[in-house]
Specification:
Multidrug-efflux Transporter Regulator, Chain: A, Domain 2; single chain; 3-stranded antiparallel β-sheet
Amino acid sequence: MASRNDQSSSPVLTLREVAQLLNVHVNTARRWGDSGVIRAYRVGPRGDRRFSREDVVSILKRKN
């Protein structure tokens, strides 16, 4: 398992990490995941959202 300091190489991102990278509010990132703007994967018994780093990079490239 990756440590907290090794997040930059992780292939998956948390909701908070996605929001920070895309410079949007956490609720916006959550809504984008729910509406399909960005693909969200539900994991664990709580259904936490995880996002592919590749998907986020793709969105960042489109913004520029």
